[in-house]
Every structure is written in C-alpha cells, then in structure tokens.
Model the fold of this input.
Amino acid sequence: MQTCSERSEAIPLVDLKRQYSSIEKDIDLSIKRVLNSGQFILGTEVSSLEKEAAEYIGVKYAIGVASGTDALHLSLLACGVGEGDEVITTSFTFIATAEAVSYCGAKPVFADIDIDTYNIDPSKIEEKITEKTKAIIPVHLYGRAADMDRIMEIAEKYKLKVIEDCAQSFGTEYKNKKTGGIGNAGAFSFFPSKNLGGYGDGGMVVTDDGDIAEKVRMLRAHGSRQKYIHQVIGYNSRLDEIQAAILRIKLKKIDMWNEMRRKHAVIYNSLLKGLPVKLSDSNNREHIYHVYTIRIKKRDDCIKFLSENGISSAVHYPVTIPAQEAYKHLGYKESDLPNSYQAAREVLSLPMFPEMEKGEIETICKAIKRFIETGNL
Ligand SMILES: *Cc1c(COP(=O)(O)O)cnc(C)c1O
Done:
C-alpha cells in the first residue's frame, strides 16, 4: 500500500528527538554543569527547579520526587490517608492514580467520567462518599482541567482533601489558576513523554500548605529532616540533579510548547469536523493537549488502517481501572461506570507533540477520512 506521508518514515505519536534537537546546546551544557559540580542528588539544580516551578504554578512550595506515582503517593500520605481509608477517583485514568491509593493501605473508589471531557463527573462523586472517605483525586486527563469548582465544593462540604493528578497537565489553567495549585496538593510527573518531561523518571508535589510540604520533604528522604535523624519511616524518592537541570531548561519553553499543541488541536478539529468522530474540542486555556484524543467507532480497525498508512496512534486507555486484573477484586461492573467503559472502547489518541508539522496533521486527517469513506463507518 502506498504511504500517504511525505516524510519517508512513519509519523510518530510523540517525537522526543525533534524536541531535543531544538534545545540540544542548552541541554548538553546543563548536563555538563551537573557532571562538573560533582553533586547528583538533591542539590542546587533541584532546589532551583523547585523554586521556579512553584513560582510558575503559583504556589508556595514545590518538592521534587522520583516519579509522578511517588508524587501522588507521598501527597496522599502527607494528607493523612492511610489504612482503611477510601479515596474517590476516576475509573478512566492511568493505573498509577489508583496504585498510589493502594500503597497507602487505602481503597480506591471509582466514580464515572463525563463522556465529553473524559474527566471525573462531579455529579457522581457525592454518592460514593462514606465515613471512610478521606480524599478525592481528580485527574486532569489528556491535559484538560477537571471541573475543579464543583470538586472543591464537594470536598469542602464533606471535609475531604483534594490531590490533583497533574501528570498530564503541566501548565493547564483553570479559571486563571494553574492546575496543581487548586486542591490541597498537586502531583506532577516528569516521565519523558509527558508534556514537561525529563530524560528519565521524575515527579513533583506542589502545595500551599506548609504542613503537607514539610511531610513530603521528609518522606522523600527516608523520613529525615536532618541527615541520619529519622522522624518517620520514609522512602527513597528523590529527584536527580541531571533531571532537574534538564527540566529547568524545558520549563522556560513550556508555555510556547503548550501553545503549539493548542494550535495543532485547532487544525485537527477543523480538518476532522463533519466526520462521524467525536472531537476533542476545548480550544481554550483549560486544555494543553498533552494528548489529542478523539472517539471513533471501529477504533481498532482504524488503528490498523492508520498503521498501514505510516501513522502511529495509541489508546489511552483500553481498559478501565476497575476492569484491570489488579482491581477486579473490587467487583465493579460495566453498568456501574458506563461512560468509562464506552471511552475505553472508542478513544483514539492521534500524534501530538509541539514540533509536529501542519502537513503531518493533514496527512493524518486525510487518512482518517479515507478510513471512514471506504465504507468503514
Ligand atoms: C504518567 C501518569 C502517572 C504516573 O507518573 P510516573 O511519573 O510515570 O510515575 C500518574 N497519573 C497519570 C494520569 C499519568 O498519566
């Protein structure tokens, strides 16, 4: 089959090499600076990144940790979540959101999503609250802000903590505030393919609460404030100096990159308009399009067709969390969470990264049109 791409290679879902080549000199210099400093864990690069990220998000404190999963886990612990507690979260997310709850000895309780935004449906939260409920974890999925006003209202009414899962939403704004700075704490991931990603694992907790910040700071470093003096049993969850130095370079570009993502989304939406697909159509600052996801029937046939035409795509996510083998024991049924199950069947993520070219988006949209026209839908 003839490929419709003008580039000889396939269009990737994400191309981190293109981004690196645009910042290569600065990155190489910053890595060298760390190598020459002889300090590799929790040094001046990490503390500078923490200061710069706190300022960017608009919070008092930022604490670098080893991953986004740890950022969630340590935030939950710092908020007092423990054995026997319940934490309400979305059934349609990456599994780390639920795992972090399980690590605390607490039980994740799943609420269904709004099928238009893919984020937790606030109207489904209240019915899940029991006397064991301690916290809510909204996920700003795909980089789109969850309905934080309604979530914060419920949290206030029932005295619950809110930990925002911002792994996909660095720089997303919600009513002039950055995500992560709205709940009691925000958890970020710097996994390489995230919209702000390092060149290895990394994460960050942000908060305005001095008590939460202090606890996370202790927990990430074996429960100690002072070397070899340990208040609590903590963890080894530190951010590397090399990752922090890389992230400081990338932090300066994040607004520009998020803006480029938004522009690509506008092009996608205009080219796919009128086709029998559900568009990802929030063209405002509440969506930074960490991933660009549409909904389409015969999704798996479409993936195959795109692949035959040299176009990569992905499914975020093919299985809801309560339907995963790991969480089957909680006993949820499809009828409990119909929107999440529908999304898992129909969502399709198309290539999205700041450096992609308009011609690539055109190629992708033409291929989808052909898929539909050749009698598939
Ligand atoms: C990536 C991701 C995480 C976990 O982050 P890691 O840095 O990979 O541990 C958590 N939640 C969501 C929604 C994610 O996308």
